[in-house]
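[job 4471] stage=fold_predict status=RUNNING
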Amino acid sequence: MSAAESHILPVYSPPEQNFVRGEGCWIWDDKGDKYLDCIAGIAVNALGHAPPVLVKALTEQAGKLWHTSNMFKVKGQEELAAKYVRDSFADVVFFTNSGTEAIEGAMKTARKYHTANGQPERVDIIGFQGSFHGRSYAAINASGNANYLDGFGPRLPGFIQAPFGDLDAVKALVGPTTAAIIIEPVQGEGGVRAASDEYLRGLRQLADDNGFLIIFDEVQSGAGRTGKMWAHQWSGVTPDIMAVAKGVGGGFPMGAFLATKEAAKGMARGVHGTTFGGNPLAMAVGNACYDELSKPEFLDRVNVVANHLTQALEGLKDRHPDLVVGVTGKGLLRGLKLRIDPKGIQGKLRDRKVLVGVAGDNVLRLAPPLVIDEEQIRHAVDALDAVLAAQMAEASA
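[job 4471] inference complete, writing structure tokens
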């Protein structure tokens, strides 16, 4: 069926490749061509394509029980929640189907906290320019990106944006109606920008001094992506609420929001819910995925490989200063900030059988499976080196 005959809502413009099989960091199309996947479904396939440990967990559960809804207890939820709490700041967990739903739940929890404290006027949530929190109505208002808001009616009240990295600007926005700050420790769509440890500590102090909450959006930066289970752990700062998704399911749709008992004090029976969130299939995969990600040797390996990738990208910057402005991000969530539109480079890399993403601010985004090795990184960087060199030669011709 041609694109003109497709019955898919035309909100995407995918390239012509039709991928049918994957293994590890490699993926094959229906013509048999093999590609190195350095975007991993946008930081989702943390253990690569079709990892045996997740295939086993899913297929075993599929033969037992798929769905009961949250009318009934789901053993896998209790098991995975206990692991999350064991290894994090949180006391309670709510499982969702996606990152967007996790963000919605996190923001509802923050506002409900203040209502429970007798301050229902505290509804304002301060977000950041360049942020991305999902595509639901509240999520696009939290981000404030005009490209996502245009045409969807009036702006929702209670959402304010501050410049990313400017603590004084945030202080100027804080007032008696402030409920929470929501921030990605590493922005994805906004240019793969990492918040400094000092900045996160400053936000934490500001929240503590003024009685509002901190929400960390770790949908993209979590699940081992930066070399620790959650990116904020590098800073020593803990949030009150955190939203996670993408890599926590290793490719299976799932997410969660985590909170301290204090922050979740208003979330009583009946105020929030989900039909599919935390179903037995998702929990089987989520438990198996977390067991792999939380192994110390696994994260040690991520850090080794991430350092290799960082050095290789810095080398590209040195070799192509007319095209490359700098290297952004953290761990295996990296960006190459270019002086040109990265979409052309993305397409030329795809022609060389290497898959990458793009982000705002002219950034080429790399978020490969966490199981990528040094040889595969060399393969990707060599392809990128060749594409940048050809770009320079073309511009000089």
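[job 4471] summary: The chain is about 35% helix and 15% strand.
[job 4471] exit 0
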